[in-house]
TrEMBL record:
InterPro entries: WH-like_DNA-bd_sf, WH_DNA-bd_sf. It comes from Streptomyces hintoniae. This is Helix-turn-helix domain-containing protein.
Amino acid sequence: MFRTPVSDLRLRVLEWLRDPVAHFPPQPEGDLAEDGVTADAVAARLGVPRTVADTHLGLLADLGLLRARSVRGRTHYRRDDMRTAEVARLFEKGW
């Protein structure tokens, strides 16, 4: 986790996923607040290709900051607030 460079895109995604209903349009399948947001929605919001969004979302999920869940065959991502708070505490302590 500490070797991963900080990315403005990833920080924006984490911020948006704090309140996905406020930052993303409704999706045809899945509830934004409960199920999360698809990579397509994140890519559209960032203005990047889906493959770029997939890379950033995958990295955040690998770090444990996002939870991935399959809804009708599509992966939805939502923020893991407990894990995000743990990481924030580590940095506050001077890590």
